[in-house]
Each structure stands twice: as structure tokens, then as C-alpha cells.
Amino acid sequence: MLVTKKRYRTLCVLSVLLTPLLLLKPVIANEIIRYGFSHWPPYGMTEQPQIYGINYDIGLELEKRLGITLQPRVCPFKRCLLELENGSLDLFSGVAKNEDREKYLAYSTPPYSAVSVVFYVRKGEAKILTNYDDLYKLRVGYVSKSHYFDPFNKDTAIQKVEVAKEQRLLPMLSSNRIDTYVGTDPNASYEVLTKGFKGRLEKADYNPDVEVPLYFAMSRKSKHLALLDKIGQAIQDMHDDGTMKRIHDRYQ
Q1: pTM of the entire structure?
Q2: Which DSSP state fits 175?
Q3: Is 145 helix (H, G, I), strand (E, B) or coil?
């Protein structure tokens, strides 16, 4: 077919207009976002065939609201952070902010939840820990790479015993291998109740009165980093319409 000069000019204009559209990447909904899960009841339960918990339910809601696909990947907390740092994971939840993490993580706002710091001791020993200074006399269990509160986080004078999972701290305390451990509620109380330690362990008298906000965070190496603002807006919408509270209430 012969092309007239007028038609040729028209085709050139269309080519200029359409070329940027053809170069756009596929819509984010067609791509998979690698979403890390640690066993941290009631936020994440990963020891059953089917993952469930607060973080999982929020992830399902984000998929529905944003039209994205989340691919769950189970890993211990410390391992999840390493994979976020090197970019082999995209997204994580149940993360508190600190300066070290912000080097490789970008946080959505607002936070989706919050936990309060608590210390557990053996039943009948609540008074061995009544103030911060008592910690210097005790062997204190904690989860590696967890962020609790300052000055505790950086206090090297405290005799700390590191574990990979919070679940290991309960039998260690019960069998006198540590004197206390630090955790966060509601998950610490949930573990004591569901793992058979009710009546054997109790909260110490010392309450640091610290609330730790929890965030969704994206690896700064993730190709989906631009999605973070939309995740934050969806979380705000879930707070506003009551969805977030309903999800949390399922696990009370």
C-alpha cells in the first residue's frame, strides 16, 4: 500500500506518542512480591502446613486492595533481615524502626500495629526484677536482632543470652538456664498461654512502659520499592474503615 506524505506524517506523530507507552514495565500486579514470615504468634504462625496470623491476614487484604501478588517465604527473624538486606526478599512486617535497619529498609507509614515490652520470670519470682538496675544481676534471654528499647538494646553490661526464636526462651527460663527474658505483648503472653507454660511463668514486676510500633518494610534493593506508598495508604484505609481492628480481634 502506498503511503501518502500526509499519512506518513500522521504515522510518525503516532509513533512518537506511543513509544513511551510501549516501553513501560508490566503492571505491578503481574509481578510477584516476596513476603517474609517469621514464627511470631499471633502475628505469624508458620509451624503448621498453612501459614496464618495477623500479618498473613493483612497481606491477603493488601493483595485484594492493591491487586498485587505476595509470595510467602518462611524464615527466622534474623535470616529474614539478612535476605531483605541483600535483596532476596522484598517485603516484611512486624518490624520496628532503628537506625541500622533504615540503611537497607524503607518503611511504610503509618504503623499497622504496636506491641509493649515485657519481661517474664518463673512463677513466684516477679520481685527479682522490679527496676532496670536489677537486670545487671540476671541472665537475660532475648531474640537476636530484635529491637526492644533503649538503653537495653545497646547495654553491653547486661548478661544477655541470644536465641533465634522467642519460643526457645520459655523452656530455657523454666529450666533455670536464664533468669528472665524480654519479649513483647501480645505475642509473649500468647506463647505462655498456648505452649503450656501458664502457671509456670509470669510477668516480672518491672514494666519498662515501652510501646513499639510495627511496620511493613521494603528492601531498598527491591524493584517494587515504588509500591511502598500505596501499601502505606492501604494500611491507613484499613485503620480508618475498621478492617485492621477486626483482623487483630480475631487473635485476641
Answers
A1: 0.74
A2: T
A3: coil
For 198-216, the pLDDT digits (tens) are 999 999 999 999 999 999 9
Q: b/e map of 196-222 (b: 16 or more CB within 10 Å)?
A: ebeeebbbbebeeeeebebbbbbbeeb
**Residue of 115, 114, 109 whose CA lies nearest to 234:** 109
DSSP E strands in 136-210: the ranges are 139-143, 159-163, 180-185, 201-203
Instruction: Look up residue 165 and give its amino acid.
Output: K
Q: What tens digit of pLDDT does each residue of 8-49 get?
A: 344 344 443 443 333 333 334 457 899 999 999 899 999 888
Cα separation, 206 vs 132, in Å, equals 7
pLDDT band of residue 7 (cuts 50, 70, 90) is very low
How many C-beta atoms lie closer than 10 Å to residue 79's C-beta?
A: 17
d(CA 132, CA 1): 87
